């Protein structure tokens, strides 16, 4: 797949400075650019590399003025970083623009799908499944009964979508994801044996939700486990039954959220965070990696540690944590003087 500088400039609404017919077929970091590759310069720290790069085309800000001779064709844009990101998105759309139905698949007679659909080999579509337009279902995906999938959704290979799940428009579900497995609900009987509580709810992903590889989202006991629009999840996250995550919240890898916790909108949660069940986390909250959250959190709090403290208090305390042995030694010395 090749693109010329002129074609790329057209996509990005940029200006070509150099050869508009020069073509590229791969992407590269500026310091590793080779002939036939496309790169970009956004961080001034990397400016020196533009005079050395062998990349055929480099995307730069309009404000960039070369101080030395260049061996690369420039495409000048308003924001090089955003333009390169837009190009990556466009590249992925072209690369993943699969269409048609491979064989073999299993499709229930009651399953339906819209236009421009791709169904990969060994996909399974259960009873009353509904897929919208431009849905991509990669090989070995399981979609259970009564699942509703919106438009422009991509479900990568090996994902498992349990019954009754609802997926909105423009969502991405990566490989190994499990949506709608039973929540972890058990209750002890008089003999101390744990008896399963039926999990009869479902999972709902609203529009523009991304779910990273290996992430698991459990169905609700009653009602729904809900990810509101624009939520972005990293790989290997566990979300338990009846959790609700607010709009445009982002969560990094290996975080675990226990049942019935409600998380607000526009939150940022780092990797390996543990969050107990049945609490409320406000809007615009920031939680640093490896923190443990065991209480309700107000809007705009910034937390770190386990159990988590206010971010500023944690940093002040950590200075003393590092010097704890010295402080104890000084206290011992003072006590001996007394």
UniProtKB/TrEMBL annotation:
Listed EC numbers: 2.3.1.191
Pfam family, one: LpxD
CC terms in the record's Gene Ontology section: membrane
Molecular function, one GO term: UDP-3-O-[(3R)-3-hydroxyacyl]-glucosamine N-acyltransferase activity
Any one of the GO BP annotations: lipid A biosynthetic process
Purpose of the protein: Catalyzes the N-acylation of UDP-3-O-acylglucosamine using 3-hydroxyacyl-ACP as the acyl donor. Is involved in the biosynthesis of lipid A, a phosphorylated glycolipid that anchors the lipopolysaccharide to the outer membrane of the cell.
PANTHER family (alphabetical): UDP-3-O-ACYLGLUCOSAMINE N-ACYLTRANSFERASE, UDP-3-O-ACYLGLUCOSAMINE N-ACYLTRANSFERASE 1, MITOCHONDRIAL-RELATED
Name recorded for this polypeptide: UDP-3-O-acylglucosamine N-acyltransferase
The organism of origin for this protein: Maribacter orientalis
Name of the gene this protein is made from: lpxD
């Amino acid at each position: 797949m090749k693109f010329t500088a002129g074609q790329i400039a057209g996509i990005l609404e940029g200006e070509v400075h150099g050869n508009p017919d020069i073509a590229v077929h791969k992407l590269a970091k500026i310091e590793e650019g080779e002939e036939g590759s496309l790169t970009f310069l956004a961080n001034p720290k990397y400016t020196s590399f533009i005079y050395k790069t062998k990349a055929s085309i480099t995307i730069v800000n309009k404000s960039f003025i070369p101080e030395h001779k260049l061996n690369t064709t420039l495409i000048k844009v308003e924001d090089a970083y955003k333009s390169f990101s837009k190009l990556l998105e466009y590249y992925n759309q072209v690369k993943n623009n699969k269409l048609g139905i491979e064989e073999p698949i299993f499709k229930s007679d009651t399953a339906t799908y819209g236009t421009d659909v791709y169904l990969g080999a060994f996909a399974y579509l259960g009873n009353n499944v509904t897929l919208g337009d431009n849905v991509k279902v990669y090989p070995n995906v399981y979609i259970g009964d009564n699942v509703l999938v919106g438009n422009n959704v991509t479900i990568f290979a090996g994902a498992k979508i349990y019954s009754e799940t609802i997926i909105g428009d423009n969502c991405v579900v990566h490989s190994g994801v499990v949506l709608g497995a039973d929540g972890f609900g058990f209750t002890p009987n008089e003999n101390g044996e744990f008896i399963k509580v039926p999990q009869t709810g479902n999972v709902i992903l609203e529009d523009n939700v991304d779910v990273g590889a290996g992430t698991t989202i459990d169905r609700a006991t009653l009602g729904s486990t809900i990810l509101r629009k624009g939520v972005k999840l990293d790989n290997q996250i566990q979300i338990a039954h009846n959790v609700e995550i607010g709009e445009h919240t982002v969560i990094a890898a290996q975080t675990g959220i226990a049942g019935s916790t409600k998380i607000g909108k526009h939150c940022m949660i780092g990797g390996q965070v543990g969050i107990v069940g049945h609490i409320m986390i406000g809007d615009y909250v920031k939680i640093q990696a490896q923190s443990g959250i065991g209480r309700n959190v107000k809007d705009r709090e910034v937390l770190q540690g386990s159990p988590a403290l206010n971010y500023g208090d944690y940093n002040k305390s950590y200075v003393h944590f590092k010097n704890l042995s010295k402080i104890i030694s000084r206290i011992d010395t003072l006590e001996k003087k007394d």
